UniProtKB/TrEMBL annotation:
<comment type="similarity">
    <text>Belongs to the MsrA Met sulfoxide reductase family.</text>
</comment>
<dbReference type="InterPro" id="IPR036509">
    <property type="entry name" value="Met_Sox_Rdtase_MsrA_sf"/>
</dbReference>
<feature type="domain" description="Peptide methionine sulphoxide reductase MsrA">
    <location>
        <begin position="45"/>
        <end position="179"/>
    </location>
</feature>
<keyword id="KW-0560">Oxidoreductase</keyword>
<dbReference type="InterPro" id="IPR002569">
    <property type="entry name" value="Met_Sox_Rdtase_MsrA_dom"/>
</dbReference>
<protein>
    <recommendedName>
        <fullName>peptide-methionine (S)-S-oxide reductase</fullName>
        <ecNumber>1.8.4.11</ecNumber>
    </recommendedName>
</protein>
<dbReference type="GO" id="GO:0008113">
    <property type="term" value="F:peptide-methionine (S)-S-oxide reductase activity"/>
</dbReference>
<dbReference type="Pfam" id="PF01625">
    <property type="entry name" value="PMSR"/>
</dbReference>
C-alpha cells in the first residue's frame, strides 16, 4: 500500500503563507463537469483538517472531485450544531470520481494543507481526522501517515477512524467563500443550502473565487463549466486577484 501511495503523489508549491497548495494537476484527467453527482459513480472521502472552510475550497477546486459539503462527524452526539458540537469535528465530506483522481491523491492534499492541528492537538473541533469508508481507505491512510511522518521526522496528531455519520453544517457554512459573491450565487441559481452542498458547479466556483487554483489551471478547468461571458470574467478576475493568497479561515 505504501508503494501505491507514493506512486500517486501530487506536486505542490509553497504559498507565501506556508500552506502547501496543489498547483499542478496536469496528470489528472480533465473532462466535462457532471451537472449532478448522479451522473458519475462516485466514492466518498471524509477529512478533518482544521477549520472546514479552507478545505472545502481546496478540494472543490481539485479536478476529479465532484461535490463537497462541510459538516460535523467523528463523535457520538446526535444532531450536533456549530455552537454545540459535543465530541464531533469539523469535516469536509467529498464525492469524487475514481476514474479521474484516486484516494492517495486526496491524502496528499490532506497532509499538505492543514492550517493547524497536524502535529499538535488543538481541540476536538479542529482535529486532524481521517474517517475511512472502507478497508482500502484505512490501509492507504495509515500507510500515507507513516510515510509522511518519516519524511518530515515528525509525529502527527491525526486520528484515523471508521466513518459513521455525517451531519451537514448550517447553511451559512456551505460554500462559504462562494456565498460572499452574491452575484454568482444569484446568477447561477445556487440559492438553497441543498444546491450549495450537492452542485458540482458550486464546489468548483467556491474553490476558484478563494484562489485555490492558478490562472492557468482555472483556464483549463473552466472549459467544462459553460459559464456566461459575464460570469466567466467575474470568476477569472477573482482567480487572478486571489492567486497565492493562501487558504485560510
Amino acid at each position: 500500500m505504501a508503494l501505491q501511495y507514493l506512486k500517486h503523489s501530487l506536486p505542490f508549491h509553497l504559498s507565501h503563507r506556508g500552506l502547501r497548495l496543489a498547483r499542478s494537476f496536469s496528470h489528472v484527467e480533465n473532462s466535462k463537469m457532471p451537472i449532478s453527482v448522479n451522473e458519475v459513480k462516485t466514492v466518498r472521502a471524509t477529512f478533518g483538517m482544521g477549520c472546514f472552510w479552507a478545505g472545502d475550497a481546496l478540494f472543490g477546486a481539485t479536478p476529479g472531485v465532484v461535490t463537497t459539503a462541510v459538516g460535523y462527524a467523528g463523535g457520538t452526539k446526535e444532531n450536533p450544531a456549530y455552537k454545540n458540537l459535543g465530541d464531533h469535528t469539523e469535516v469536509i465530506h467529498i464525492e469524487y470520481d475514481p476514474e479521474r483522481i484516486n484516494y492517495s491523491q486526496l491524502l496528499d492534499l490532506f497532509w499538505n494543507n492543514h492550517e493547524y492541528g497536524l502535529t499538535a492537538y488543538v481541540k476536538r473541533q479542529y482535529l486532524s481526522l481521517i474517517l475511512y469508508h472502507n478497508q482500502e481507505q484505512k490501509e492507504l491512510a495509515e500507510a500515507s501517515r507513516d510515510h509522511q511522518q518519516r519524511l518530515r521526522n515528525e509525529r502527527f496528531a491525526t486520528e484515523i477512524s471508521p466513518f459513521d455519520k455525517f451531519y451537514p453544517a448550517e447553511d451559512y457554512h456551505q460554500k462559504y467563500r462562494l456565498q460572499g459573491h452574491a452575484y454568482l450565487v444569484e446568477a447561477l441559481g445556487l440559492k438553497s443550502a441543498l444546491e450549495l452542498q450537492t452542485s458540482p458547479l458550486a464546489a468548483k466556483l467556491n474553490g476558484f473565487v478563494a484562489g485555490a487554483v492558478s490562472p492557468s489551471e482555472f483556464e483549463e478547468q473552466v472549459k467544462s463549466l459553460e459559464l456566461s461571458d459575464k460570469a466567466l470574467q467575474y470568476v477569472r478576475k477573482h482567480v487572478i486577484d486571489n492567486q497565492g493568497s493562501g487558504l485560510y479561515c
